[in-house]
Amino acid sequence: MSSAPPSTEARPHMVALAATLVQAGAIRTTEWARVFGDVPRHVFVPRWFEQETNDKGIAVWREHHSTATPDDLAAVYRDLTLVIALDPDTAEQVDTDAWTGIPTSSSTLPSLMAGMLEDLDLTEGCRVLEIGTGTGYNAALLSARLGEHLVYSVDIDPALVLAAQERLSTAGYTPQLVPGDGTLGYPTGETFDRIIATCSVPAIPAAWIEQSKPGTVIVSDIALGIEGGIVRLEVDETGHAAGRFTATSGRFMAARTDARTYPARQRPPLLPETTTRPTAVTAADIREHYPFRLLLAFHLPEAELVYHRDAAGALSLQIQGPDGSWGRTPLAGDDTELVTCGGDPALWGQVENAWRWWNTAGRPAHDRFAYARKTDGSAYVRYIPDGTRWNLPARG
Hints:
alpha+beta, Rossmann fold, 5-stranded antiparallel sheet, 27% helix
């Protein structure tokens, strides 16, 4: 492949991206507007995969290169997440430049990155730890804002770290990058003023607290099962981290402990069908309302949301618990106001209880909920207006 286009060719796209993020409200300060207009994203995303259906009707990931055409260069500067790596255990090449498979790494949606960076509330001299180096683009943005000597980054995939180092060098930055499990913090044990994670974790890891100071801000995606979201927390002198779900919303791929792939998830067998009955909560209600899905995760912290396809090919939204109980409701057809349950029907009763609570409370947005990690590692969520609280199980 040819080298990255000169900055004069990319400059209009860089400036346009910054303007788009300002207009969208993701960028709120002049410092970050300058940084996004100065750091070339195409250098960090020379190749990406875009999902499409090929001529055989198969959903594939089509490979693109930022230097291939002017349209491809422009595409890198859209406000879109760009998949940069596929799980080698599931990836299968089905065409010259197309694969099936599960994504394992991406260049994050720029508006999400901008919102999280703004939520860090950086000041001059802040030492920042980034969990999930990925392409290196976020580390470049931080380096341009603070100075590379204050930026540290860790990623589980040594190949990604090496590639990111090369791209950062091309762009003129040399932050401190190392391969490793980011949930264990930075391997040399420094403490940081800010920690930002571009992967999701089920709970704030103890190592991040240990590498914090009183006043350290942590911005991370917390995955709570059915749903999750971005939290901004401040750590006090006891190691208690408290804050709230931010107005910035978005989700990240889960943190991995293996550099190449995700482990297969072990699930209990589904219990036999027990009942079908009317329900006030439809699949559309759950799919269309992110704050309600988040609330469901508070009510059912051990459950997960999946899609179920029956023998006739009809799709339903299904919530299933850790004991194999489940409840599903169709996405389309004449029975969308019915739920079919297996095992304990009280599981779907919890869904309906959460729906009633959310509607009675006036359908509050996700940023009306606080999140805290206690010093013993357990966590809880609180509805800010009236203090209603949900305790969350300790998670690894």
